[in-house]
Design goal:
- The chain has 3 helices and 9 strands, in the order E-E-E-E-E-E-E-E-H-H-E-H.
- With about 150 residues, the protein is of the alpha+beta class.
- Strands 1, 2, 3, 4, 5, 6, 7, 8 and 9 form a 9-stranded mixed beta sheet that branches.
C-alpha cells in the first residue's frame, strides 16, 4: 500500500494546501492508500465506489468525504461511468486557529462537524451530500482557491 507524502503533492510551509482536479474513466481503479495530510474529496460529477477503512460505499455528484492522515481508502468507477473530483489536500494545522474560533458557535451541528479536526479519535462516518445551493458555493470556493494557488497568492 502506498503512503502519499506532503512532498508528493507540493504541500509545504509556504503553500500548506493543494487542490487537484482528477478525472477517472470507466472501470478505473485507484488502489487503496493513505497519506500524511487531510484529503477532502468533492465529487463534481459522476460516481464511484469508495473503499474507506475496509468498507465500501457509493459516492455520487455532490458528495464529500474527509480522510484524515493515516486512514486507508481508494475508489473505482464502474465500466459505464466516469467521475470528476476535486481533491483538497492540507495539513490540520492550516485551519487550527480558524477552527478554534469557530468551535464557539452555538449551532450543535457545526460543533460536531468541527470535531473531526480536533479529536484524534474521531471517526468520520461515510459521507456528506451537499444541497444544490451548497454545491454552487463549494464550486465557487474551490475555483477561487485554485486561482490563488496558481497565482501563488
Amino acid at each position: 500500500m502506498r503512503i502519499h507524502t506532503n512532498e508528493d503533492y507540493s504541500i509545504n510551509k509556504k503553500f500548506p494546501i493543494n487542490i487537484i482536479t482528477n478525472y477517472h474513466g470507466p472501470g478505473e481503479t485507484y488502489n487503496v492508500h493513505s497519506h500524511e495530510f487531510i484529503e477532502l474529496i468533492y465529487v463534481v460529477s459522476g460516481e464511484c465506489y469508495h473503499t474507506y477503512e475496509g468498507k465500501s460505499s457509493q459516492l455520487c455528484k455532490g458528495d464529500i468525504c474527509i480522510i484524515k492522515p493515516g486512514e486507508v481508502h481508494g475508489y473505482r468507477t464502474e465500466n459505464n461511468t466516469t467521475m470528476k473530483t476535486y481533491l483538497i489536500l492540507f495539513q490540520p494545522e492550516v485551519l487550527q486557529k480558524e477552527l478554534f474560533v469557530l468551535s464557539d458557535l452555538e449551532d450543535i451541528m457545526d460543533y460536531f462537524y468541527l470535531q473531526m479536526f480536533f479529536r484524534k479519535d474521531y471517526e468520520f462516518k461515510d459521507k456528506m451530500t451537499l444541497t444544490p445551493l451548497e454545491k454552487i458555493r463549494i464550486d465557487l470556493l474551490v475555483k477561487t482557491v485554485k486561482e490563488e494557488l496558481e497565482n501563488k497568492e
